[in-house]
Structures are given as C-alpha cells and as structure tokens.
C-alpha cells in the first residue's frame, strides 16, 4: 500500500495506545507488527505511544492502519477489526475522562433518556475537540442526534466513491452511547463521509433504543 502523507493534525497518544492494545488483543503481536509494517509505521513496532494526552499521533497514521487492515483481512474484515478497536478505545481511554465521568452520577441517571443522550454526546464531542485536532459538533432533530466530525483521522487521503468507511468512530460511538445510557443500544449510521466527497463525516444516532423492551416515554 502507498504511504499516506503526514497531515499535521493529531490524536492524543493515549487514544492511539488504546487502539494499539485493542488490535494486539485481536490480532496477536505478530499480526499487529505485520500490519504496522504494511502501513509504513515500522517505527511503532515494539515502540507503542506513551500513555499521555500529548497530541502525538498523526491522523495519517490512523488512516494508514485502517487501510492496512482492509488489505490484510478484506474490507469487511478490516472494518470489523477497526470498529472493535473503536469500542475498546472508548472503554480504555475516554469513559473516565473529564466530562464523561458525570454521566454515571445519580442525578444524571435520573434524567430522561433524550436529555442523557444530548448531554452525553455533547460531552464526548467537547472532549474529542479539546484533546485532539478532530473538531466535532453535535446537533439534533426530533428523532436523531447528529454527530459531525469536521476533521477526520480515519479516512484521511482516502477515496471511497459512494461508501462511508469510518468504522472506528461508529465503534467508539456505540460504546459511548452504551455508557451514557446505562447499557442501551442505538442504531448508528455514517451518512456523510469525507472519503466519498462530502465536506464532513456525519453520524446519525436514532434516539429510540433498539433494545426491544425499551420505549422512550413522552
């Protein structure tokens, strides 16, 4: 695969480390090192990012990891790996970070679900904007929350024609929403993607959980 030029935009080392740890658990050390070699990231073999919030992991390197996973396991398999890494990264690096801590307190848990989702997604977007160069905003309509990434590390320098490909972010959102709601699951879809020519990567989250036994109260 071709090398992706460095972007000058960065994720914090801690999020990169959490992603590395997740992929090592899934692939094994040898498979992970082979992926790094394919992604032109040999400098990270046996040299993982430090566990700190310094902005030290270039967006280009995140994008290269997903491309390498797709080449190794096919598009569907690669997307599955990176989506699982997104879930694990939230659990390892974000759920106890700053504003996210408040979503487990007693007062928050007593709020209506729609307000929990609004506050929780705004908190996650604020954290991602503060700790990385990924500028993120949240809006909503009557039935959906819209989570918008204006600078995306996951599809940098990629062209996907008519497909949305940012599976890491979907995994991260799935786990974040589960944490915010006390275990509920929500339908999430990437509806716009920079890789297919859109201006942003946009994710729609249905406010109604997909857990069959739960119904949002009016």
Q: What does the secondary structure layout of this molecule look like, with pairings?
A:
Layout: E1 10-12, H1 13-38, E2 55-58, H2 59-94, H3 106-109, H4 113-131, E3 136-140, E4 144-149, H5 167-181, E5 188-192, E6 201-206
Antiparallel strand pairs: 1-2, 3-4, 4-6, 5-6
Helix pairs in contact: 1-2, 2-5, 4-5
Short précis:
This protein has 218 residues and is of the alpha+beta class. The protein has five helices and six strands. Helix content is 46%, strand content 13%.
Can you tell me about this structure?
The protein is of the alpha+beta class. The protein folds into 2 domains: 85 residues, no CATH class; 96 residues, Trafficking protein particle complex subunit 3 (Muramoyl-pentapeptide Carboxypeptidase, domain 2), CATH 3.30.1380.20. The protein is built from 5 helices and 6 strands, in the order βαβαααββαββ. A 4-stranded antiparallel beta sheet has the order 3-4-6-5, covered by helices on one side. Strands 1-2 form a two-stranded antiparallel ribbon. α2 packs parallel to α5 and α4 crosses α5. The longest helix is centred in the middle third of the chain and has 36 residues. The chain is globular, with a radius of gyration of 17 Å. The N and C termini lie far apart (52 Å).
């Amino acid at each position: 695969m071709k090398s992706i030029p460095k972007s000058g935009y960065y994720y914090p080392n801690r999020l990169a480390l959490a992603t590395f740890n997740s992929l090592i658990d899934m692939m094994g050390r040898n498979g992970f090192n082979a992926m790094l070699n394919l992604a032109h990231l040999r400098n990270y073999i046996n040299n993982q990012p430090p566990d700190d919030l310094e902005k030290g992991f270039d967006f280009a390197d995140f994008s290269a990891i997903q491309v390498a996973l797709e080449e190794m396991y096919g598009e569907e398999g690669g997307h599955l790996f990176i989506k699982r890494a997104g879930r694990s990264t939230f659990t390892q690096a974000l759920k106890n970070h700053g504003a996210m801590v408040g979503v487990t307190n007693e007062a928050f848990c007593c709020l209506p679900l729609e307000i929990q989702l609004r506050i929780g997604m705004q908190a996650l977007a604020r954290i991602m904007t503060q700790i990385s160069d990924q500028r993120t905003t949240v809006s909503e309509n009557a039935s959906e929350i819209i989570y918008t990434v204006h600078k995306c590390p996951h599809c940098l320098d990629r062209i996907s024609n008519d497909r949305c490909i940012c599976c890491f972010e979907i995994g991260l959102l799935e786990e974040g929403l589960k944490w915010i709601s006390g275990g509920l699951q929500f339908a999430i879809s990437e509806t716009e993607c920079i890789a297919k020519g859109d201006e942003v990567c946009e994710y729609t989250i249905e406010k109604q959980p997909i857990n069959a036994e739960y119904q949002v109260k009016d």
